[in-house]
Amino acid sequence: MTVVPVADRPVALIDLLDRLLQGGVVITGDLVLSIADVDLVRIDLRAVIAPVAAAAVDAATQPL
Amino acid sequence: MTDTDIKTAIDADIDLDAEINAEIDNDAKSDLDAEMSNDVKTDVDQTAKTDIVYAYAVLRRTPEAARAVANLRGVAGEPIRLLEFGDDAPDGTPDPDDTPERRPPALAAVVGPVPAADFDEASLKAGLEDLGWLEATARAHHAVVAALTGRGIAVLPLRLVTVYRDEDRVRQTLEARRDDFLPLLDRVTGHVELGVKIYAAPDTESSDPEPTKAKGLGVGRAYLAGRRRRKRSTEDAWQAATDTAARLRELAGTLAVDHVAFHPQRGELAGSVPGPNVSNDAYLVPEDRVEDFRTRVLAAAEGLPGVHVEVTGPWAPYSFSLPAEPVS
Prior knowledge:
The complex is a heterodimer of chains A (about 60) and B (about 325). By secondary structure, chain A is mainly alpha-helical.
């Protein structure tokens, strides 16, 4: 196993997008745009932003 | 959001000037403390006509939070400030039974005015399809959130591009959710999010104990034997990584107060990785257990061939800020 010290690494974009596109407080209504309304078709972004519902189901079915 | 909601929002936007005037009236009436009141009036005067409002996070309104946002810049380089909500009853009339003791903590949204032309629906749709724009915006959003958590301030980060047409809409929407925010804020206070990613990392060089045996074989058979070993190495690594993932999840669960599983990372954005990502989890961990968590999770995977573990963070509690949407 190899370990890269965290301090030497910038935040990886994919980790950030996992959180900013699937996590964070979701507000519906009265927004300019909902992320869910966007295709995000390029560069494998579909894989990054798999539906929040699916992530929640995974968490519920996997033991802590 | 239903189509009707969207249509209503678009229709309402046409009458923006009237709403801005109403908002200024509202601000004049509210009894904010002097420091905040000045900020609000200045910003409304200067920015409301051409700007819309990008919201980054929800937090408790404290002097420390106000100081923390004072010099921050947002996704459009705009100054960041606190937009308070939740002080009055939703219709603006004071609750007759209200006393300072009974009042729940005042909340605020961390917001910044952004150019309407760059953050209207069409621009956002185009931007979210553009990796360069997406990365710059995500990093700037994260920088605002991280500046707050870096000072130990508990926040509920909002999802990327949470943008409203004006500040009144931010207030109204967030006010309607305050009963969700308070328990979530309580839960994340004193906690951080840590990421644990586990990769199957087949060892392509060393774990081959059989090269001498292969010497007696013809070229073709040696090739096939080598291929079988590599295949076995990949399968072994996958098995080892999934076993480790299960064990680490159990261990991490004892050190964390909550857990969310993201989908494993795939594709070009995953970058240069040691092998396939078999699990990609987030844990909510008490601040004073962060080093313990990191050390014990990494130690549990140490020396295991075919397994690579990464611990990321501390992050703001992005993955633990998701209350159920109110039923409408």
